[in-house]
Give the backbone structure.
Amino acid sequence: MGRAWWPLALALVFPSVAFAQRFDDVGVRAQGMAGAFVAVADDASATWWNPAGLATGLTFVDASVQVADGGLRGVAMAFPSLGLSYYRLKISQIQPFASTAADASGRQDNGAAGSGLSTDAGLSQFGATVGQSINPHLVVATTVKLVSAQGDTQADLDVGAMAVFGVMRLGVTVRDVREPTFGSGSTALTLARRARAGAAVIAPALGPFDRLVFSVDADLVTAATDGRDEREVAGGVEAWWLGRRVGLRGGAGANTVAGGGSFGALGVTVVPYPRMNLEAALTRGADSTRDQWSLGLRLTF
């Protein structure tokens, strides 16, 4: 046998860390609606939220730049049938997939539960989004992406579908389908698959509002995020008036896993010049790991 047992022993001692990215890590409008956005997804952030949303875009070209709490940086450009995107996020406060909220104490000091991972590690994602109309009501699409972390690069993909029936929209999306693993040994980590479904009602004009959106989302799987298991439900609303020069949005949600907490969000868009959207969002939760802010600039044509 010689030393043939050593790789197995090391794999048992140093298992890879599994973590999942929150859906509402990206997208200023989505964050302002507490993450109830899978069935809305009609701007450049559809490249992250639901690739099939590009076919329902508000404009022919939608370009956005976003910065947010925690070091997020994002750039995306979307057309009705093509999207290009780059996102850079920190992998912070992560733990093994089986972790619970009670295990989370001291995780900032220990990295990922003593795994040797840096809490300041970063993840970069380059994506290209394409879709296909199945019939007048249904679109399916995918974001093919290269993801880099821990000095390693892996290919992965997100898939999504969007069904539109008048003012009613139904969406579903699955992120990180391949569940890629980055690195090896004590610093190996796996990007866990995450799925979410949503429904939305979008009224082009209603009373004093130029556009009114009501939406709900629900995670379809439980995933470890920020050192705890999460399975979220969320609801949001978005209202536009003054010729769509001002948009306000808000939402609330909860982590339905035992020991989870609630959270709420507010957001605003101001259009000082035609085609220029200045956006901001703020989220606060019972668990401080949900606290975040984001700022964005959208240009539409």
Observations:
- The two ends are 66 Å apart (CA to CA).
